[in-house]
Amino acid sequence: MADDWLKRWHEGRIGFHRDHPHPALIRHWPALKVRAGTKVLVPLCGKSLDMRWLANRDYPVLGIELAETAIEQFVAEGRGDVTRYHQDGFDVCRQGNLELWCGDFFHFHIDQAAEIGAFYDRAALIALPEATRQRYAFHLAQLMPPGARGLLISLTRDPGGPPYSVDADEVHALFDPNFRVTHLEDGEPEANGFRECVWALERRGPLT
Ligand SMILES: C[S@@+](CC[C@H](N)C(=O)[O-])C[C@H]1O[C@@H](n2cnc3c(N)ncnc32)[C@H](O)[C@@H]1O
């Protein structure tokens, strides 16, 4: 699976990448009322411009991405000095208030997540096959402190993937145990039959 993603990046088969920040992020992030200055975790981040959108609005970003190519392209296409260092088994690239950790999201642990207080998932959950999605939802919950909010953009489609179809029942089954889940909108069906759905999630506290 990891090799498939690295191959995709190597060959430039990155149809999932968007040239502009995602409209649903722009529309819905402000309503989450995440305090400015809160660090936002972006799992499976690719070279998404959504990270710059967040960083430009005073949300420091910590992205995690398997493919070094994605991270190198991201910083090359950005502005500002780049600092590189190694931390806890990850190669980290920092540019301004963006830090991109190169490695496996499932190897990123709570002690590295201390400052994180929000998250943004566009095409991360839906990039993973079914069994791994359960692991993803659990791992994300482990990393988020009570009260942390995030935006999830999932997708439904005819069978196939990636991207995989993750319907509303599955979103609830995956996240209800640890998050308050609110459906925000369904996008228009696209020509390829994909349809995005937008969700707000809030990490529950121990007694909620
Ligand atoms: C469908 S792309 C979405 C990228 C980005 N979120 C966006 O919206 O453009 C999924 C990305 O996750 C990366 N990836 C897949 N499995 C991963 C893992 N276990 N840890 C970190 N990154 C992973 C892939 O290399 C790929 O760049």
Report on the structure:
It comes from Halomonas urmiana. Belongs to the class I-like SAM-binding methyltransferase superfamily. TPMT family. S-adenosyl-L-methionine binds at residues 9, 44, 65, 122. It is found in: Cytoplasm. With 208 residues, the chain is an alpha/beta fold. It has a single domain (2-11, 22-203), classed as Vaccinia Virus protein VP39 (Rossmann fold, 3-Layer(aba) Sandwich), CATH 3.40.50. It has 6 helices and 9 strands, in the order H-H-E-H-E-H-E-E-E-E-H-E-H-E-E. The radius of gyration is 16 Å and the shape is globular. The mean pLDDT is 96. It binds S-adenosylmethionine (SAM). Residues 5, 16-17, 44-46, 48, 64-67, 70, 104-106, 122-124, 127 line the site of S-adenosylmethionine.
The ligands bound in this entry are: S-adenosylmethionine
Determine the strand fraction and express it as a percent band: 25-35%
The CATH topology is: Rossmann fold
CATH superfamily (homologous) name: Vaccinia Virus protein VP39
Strand arrangement, major sheet = 3-4-5-2-1-6-7-9-8
- The rough form would be described as globular
Percent in helix? 25-40%
Mean of pLDDT: 96
Integer tally of domains: 1
C-alpha-based Rg, rounded: 16 Å
Q: What's the CATH class label?
A: Alpha Beta
CATH architecture: 3-Layer(aba) Sandwich
